[in-house]
């Protein structure tokens, strides 16, 4: 067990190696990545060679972007509020101005009606002028330079008229000149009109500022919502796509396809570690599966041994018997008879050799080796392998095959193991004297062939049907069954791109159908 420090050193070493490896150019296609991947180690190298872009970093970047945008919105809103505040102050100024003008006019009216003095009117005009001059920059912005000048001129003329009226009044004490009175009235009305215009403009400027502020808030919120949705969509989409990809890997691995995962994206992130771990798991699984296949094979050999011993005994007995007879009667036999007996010995020896080589073939542990195969010949060979087992059980195997059946791409040893297992199971389920049928024909699926192993034995209870392909599921007595046959067979067939189906009726028998894709390779 490596210590923590050793593991850490290993990880750092791997990282260093990955960093020293030049990163693949971003223009590399997936196929080019694939070319580099032969086993888990090179897959890992290819995974780590990509530039990192972790999910955490992506989350931080996306949220930083949303935060910066929110800050932008907040600044805009604050500026709008400031603008509205300014407009309110402006409105207050204009309001004060209008009040002063109104006052002046009221005092002016009083003068003509009740002969009051004009000092109050002049004071109000003065106040109005102070407001106008004191806020000239703001007021010019609202009504423009020309209008401002007009207002100032207007109030000055009004003041002048008031002044001249007052001096005439104090000097003569007589009723003022009618023309001055008329001019004053006209000037006063114009002044009121200009003040109201100023008020209207200021109010509509304030309305505009409020509307702009409201629009800024609404549009910013909508935009922020769009950013959030886009973020959730992109990040969520990335995560979901990866999760779906890993889901499909899990399904494919569960079906016995142990092909390694290869880099599919330009960058590496947290999912990369998961892919590396899965590749490691796949390699371990493959190792264990091949151990399982081998152990099941040895078990099948055990089952076959009795039959094989008997099978070997026959030719050996025949050889011994014929050679003895040949020795004893050598002188009495003519050449033809001697040749016949020697041929018989050779034939029997050949038979024994074939049995032994069949067995050796079967026991040998080998890597999966796919080659174009004649399925009919392969099934026939397997039936021969189980011939004696069948004979001992007092059964008969009938084999039918469609002429010119398409060839398949497969590993002969492994497929022989599958069919042998199905035959031995069929024998075990059938009673003495029963018949087992095996049929090879095109499958219902296009470009597939099917081999059916049909027995008329006990059948499989419905509630067992979903379990019989599970490893170690067996209903056989201890020592007789391992429960590995069907699970190993299923793994082998899946590796060949095919599947096994089962139909069974209690008391009537079972049909196991192996479906395999055909090959165009001859
Ligand atoms: P084993 O033969 O060692 O039990 P298998 O995986 O080959 O392991 O089979 C699992 C179980 O499936 C058997 O124990 C048996 O109950 C059932 N089975 C398989 N083939 C047949 C068959 N042709 N008829 C009835 N039951 C079967």
Q: Can you characterise this structure?
A:
There is one protein chain. The chain has about 525 residues and is of the alpha+beta class. The chain folds into two domains: about 55-230, Four Helix Bundle (Hemerythrin (Met), subunit A), CATH 1.20.120; about 285-515, Histidine kinase-like ATPase, C-terminal domain (Heat Shock Protein 90). The chain has helices at about 5-20, 30-35, 40-50, 55-115, 120-135, 135-170, 180-255, 270-330, 335-365, 375-385, 385-390, 410-430, 485-495; strands at about 370-375, 395-400, 410, 435-440, 450-455, 500-505, 510-515. The chain has a five-stranded mixed β-sheet with strand order 2-4-5-7-6. A two-stranded antiparallel ribbon has the order 1-3. Strand 4 and strand 5 form a beta hairpin. Helix 4 (about 55-115) packs antiparallel against helix 7 (about 180-255), helix 5 (about 120-135) packs antiparallel against helix 6 and helix 8 (about 270-330) crosses helix 13. The longest helix has about 80 residues, at about 180-255. The protein starts with a helix and ends in a 5-residue tail after the last strand. The relative contact order is 0.07. The site of adenosine-5'-diphosphate (ADP) has 21 residues, from helix 12 and helix 13. The site of adenosine-5'-diphosphate has 21 residues, from helix 12 and helix 13.
């Amino acid at each position: 067990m490596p210590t923590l420090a050793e593991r850490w050193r290993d990880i750092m070493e791997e990282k260093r190696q990955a960093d020293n490896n030049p990163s693949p150019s971003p223009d590399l296609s997936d196929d080019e990545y694939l070319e580099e991947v032969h086993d888990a180690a090179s897959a890992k190298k290819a995974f780590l060679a990509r530039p990192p872009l972790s999910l955490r970093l992506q989350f931080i970047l996306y949220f930083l972007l949303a935060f910066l945008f929110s800050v932008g919105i907040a600044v805009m809103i604050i500026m709008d509020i400031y603008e509205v505040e300014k407009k309110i102050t402006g409105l207050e100024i204009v309001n004060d101005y209008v009040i002063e003008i109104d006052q002046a006019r009221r005092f002016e009216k009083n003068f003509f009606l009740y002969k009051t003095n004009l000092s109050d009117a002049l004071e109000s005009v003065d106040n109005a002028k102070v407001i106008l001059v004191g806020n000239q920059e703001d007021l010019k912005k609202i009504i423009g330079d020309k209008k401002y000048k007009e207002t100032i001129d207007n109030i000055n003329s009004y003041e002048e008229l008031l002044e001249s009226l007052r001096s005439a009044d104090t000097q003569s004490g007589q009723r003022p000149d009618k023309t001055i009175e008329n001019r004053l009235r006209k000037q006063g009305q114009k002044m009121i009109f200009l003040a109201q215009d100023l008020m209207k403009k200021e109010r509509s400027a304030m309305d505009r500022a409020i509307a702009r502020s409201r629009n800024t808030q609404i549009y910013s919120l909508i935009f922020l919502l769009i950013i959030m949705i886009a973020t959730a969509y992109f990040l969520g989409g990335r995560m979901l796509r990866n999760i779906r990809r890993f889901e499909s890997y899990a399904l494919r691995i569960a079906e016995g396809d142990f092909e390694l995962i290869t880099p599919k994206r330009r960058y590496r992130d947290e999912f990369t570690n998961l892919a590396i771990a899965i590749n490691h798991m796949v390699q371990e699984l493959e190792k264990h599966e091949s151990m399982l296949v081998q152990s099941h094979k040895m078990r099948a050999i055990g089952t076959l041994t009795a039959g094989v011993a008997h099978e070997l005994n026959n030719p050996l007995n025949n050889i011994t018997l014929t050679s003895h007879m040949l020795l004893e009667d050598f002188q009495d036999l003519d050449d033809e008879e001697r040749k016949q007996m020697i041929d018989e010995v050779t034939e029997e020896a050949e038979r024994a050799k074939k049995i032994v080589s069949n067995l050796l073939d079967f026991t040998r542990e080998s890597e999966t080796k796919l080659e174009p195969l004649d399925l009919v010949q392969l099934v026939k060979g397997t039936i021969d392998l189980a011939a004696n087992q069948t004979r001992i059980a007092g059964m008969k195997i009938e084999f039918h095959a469609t002429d010119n059946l398409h060839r398949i791409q497969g590993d002969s040893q492994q497929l022989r193991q599958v069919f042998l297992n199905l035959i031995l199971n069929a024998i075990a389920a059938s009673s003495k004297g029963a018949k087992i049928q095996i049929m090879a024909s095109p499958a219902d699926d296009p470009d597939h062939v099917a081999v059916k192993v049909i027995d008329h034995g006990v059948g499989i209870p419905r509630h067992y049907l979903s379990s019989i392909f599970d490893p170690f599921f067996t209903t056989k007595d201890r020592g007789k069954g391992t429960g590995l046959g069907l699970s190993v067979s299923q793994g082998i067939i899946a590796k060949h791109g095919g599947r096994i189906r089962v139909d069974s009726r209690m008391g009537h028998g079972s049909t196991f159908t192996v479906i395999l894709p055909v090959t165009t390779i001859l």
